[in-house]
Amino acid sequence: MVINQPSNQIKLTNVSLVRLKKAKKRFEIACYKNKVLEWRSGVETDLDNVLQINSVFLNVSKGQTAPASDLAKSFGPKTSVNDIILEILNKGELQVGEKERHAQLERVHNEVVSIVAGKLVDPKTKRVYTTGMIEKALEMLSSQGSQAQQEKPAPAAGAEDGPAAEEAEAKPKVREHVWTGVVATKSAKSQALDAMKALITHQPIPVARARMRLRVSCPTGILKHAAKSAAPINPEDGEEKSKGTVKDRILSYIEQVEVQEVVGSEWVVTGFVEPGAFKGLGDFVGGETKGQGRVEVLDMAVTHED
User: Fold this and answer.
1) Taking the CB of the first residue and of the last residue of the chain, which one, N or C, has fewer CB atoms within 10 A?
2) Which pLDDT tens digit goes with each residue over 272-286?
3) What's the domain count of the chain?
4) What is the pTM of this model?
């Protein structure tokens, strides 16, 4: 006996779904497991390796394909099926199972820990920490994170009542750079930056950003010229600090000078700089030398390993 199935039903198994709601309709595409994230990160570029079938569904689990009329109404009558699939693939919500979700979170977690371990050092020895030590330090912060997010200071004795006091009481004090753990919805790089800020702020173990090693080149003819760009404001008196010469200002950015010498018509200095000072130094050299000077990165993070 032949059993006829509806022509718009396709049975698929072992798939990852990407779902997009548009014009009050929900559309789905069926993809191979683990391929969606590779596509979105640029690792996978062949659409055929991502899609199980080149169709748009209303419900993949029931094998119900989307009628052409629904697609035209939601995406526009001139939009091709391939363009619709790409929109769903790039903008849709990835539906993953519990095992996949756990594996994805673990991959992001390991990547975050690895990035942080390569960027932070013991401030005394300048040596890197193992990934295990960084992981434990983040766990210490994470266990305190949820409580710290809503820390509220106790009211001072004899504090006056009034609208200002009520408003202050209504707004909980939020601690800066609270770490509550890795999530799967943000990139590992951005989460690693958050993790580093939290570790540096709260110091569960002694940490500091590894310094950058730079080479700065500047024409000797302008070294003794007075710096033209505005110098920082002195917080004590609110007045502008002495600008100094171009050479003085360049050296003020460098924490530790390794070598400085004159090579032909250029003065060259190599040294170590805090990562936060890199942009300011680059802008200053570029502006003062009108593009004749250079700031070159020799090492993004100088560390010592056992």
Assistant:
1) N
2) 988 888 888 999 999
3) 3
4) 0.55
